[in-house]
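Milestone M4 deliverable, item 7.
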Amino acid sequence: MAASRAIARWGETSIVEQAGSVARSRWRQSAALRVAVLTAGLLFAAMLLLGGSAVLAVYAGMVHRLDSSIIRAADDLMALRARRGPAALVEAIRQREHVASDSLDVALYDRAGRLLAGRPGIVPPPEGWHDMVFPDPVEGGDPTRVLVTPTEAGGRLMIAGNRRPLLVARSVIGWLFVVASIIILLLCTLMGALLIRFLDRRLDPITRTANAVLAGDLGQRVPESGAGDEFDRAARSLNLMLDRIAGLVDNLRQVSSDLAHDLRTPLTRIRVGLERAPAPGSGGTAEAIQAAIAQIDDVVLLFEAILRIAEIDGSAGRTMTTLDLDVIARDIVETMAPAFADQAIDLVYRSGGACPIRGDRMQIAALLINLLENVLRHAPGSYRTEVGTMRGGAQVTLTVRDTGPGVPDGQLERIFDRFVRLDRSRSTAGHGLGLSMVRSVAQAHGAGVEAINDDGLRVTLRFPLAADG
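Output delivered:
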């Protein structure tokens, strides 16, 4: 039997310990629970503090009111004695005994402590304030507030006020406060439960989306409630981040595929060229080696371009300073003018005045150089190229327009993708990365880029105006 009781107690203890462990785990793992409990606890503590202070203030006010009435009665009686003598005081006290509305008891004693007038059966206490219990045949005793004041003849004047109404009122207020506290505690508990439910309901979609993304579903997005609150703003930011990640992953897949495709041809050519190269010592070996080196250099340039784009994508915002786009564009146009003149293309620059932006000088220069080199390589028949800057509103615009054949409408969206080369460009040097780098630089600077056909190809970039511009 003792062993059974011990096992039962062990089982109960084990259950309690398990419940406590679950509660502690829930407390550690649920921020919503901690926020709800702490919020409800602070609210309940504030209500207790305010309610308790109010109860004490009300009771103190009632005590002060009783004391004030006692003091006024004592002052009035002592003033009457000073004006009309002791006999008038005795008469006034006797008359007060017959006034039913008067809640104060009055007694006058002589020097020897004998009652001269007023309530009998009370032994007069010393001078000052006292809390006493007066005998009451009905209720058994009345808690009383007493003030004893000395008279000029050596006697004592006692004024007493019944404290029972104050104590009853305090008891009623106290019980009301207890009931109100219980109601407030229940409301705080309900508020905490609703807060936990609200937080779980708003955070669960984020958790589900994150788990889906971790599982490989990059198309999942955090739903928005439409309230426009902090959770919606967080969801919007997370969705933008997921869009960016999905774009980078898609781009990586495309780059990997395109890179494998673009490397296959030059590597195959190198292998075939080396296989067909004459034996060492015979004529033509040096030429085959030089051809292989040239093709390898082309592959190296391809990787350098890819690394440069990756560097730009990873350095957004790191080396930004305030630049004047007009000055940079003017310098690049002056530098590139001889190359355009060699191909009989008129290169014109239209200044838009001071155009301050936040950016990396080298990247902005590389962007414009790539746009102009794209004209030289892929705009046959162009006779004029215009470069212009313009400041308007909160934007700074950079435009490069040529008079070449333009781009087929169905290809305009693709020309900024990596390794994209139009059919007519297959015979020219390059890997299709120039305009891809332009887009990477634009994105790193928070700029939008757009290409349209306008009697040739027109590429427009819109940069945010520098805040200190």
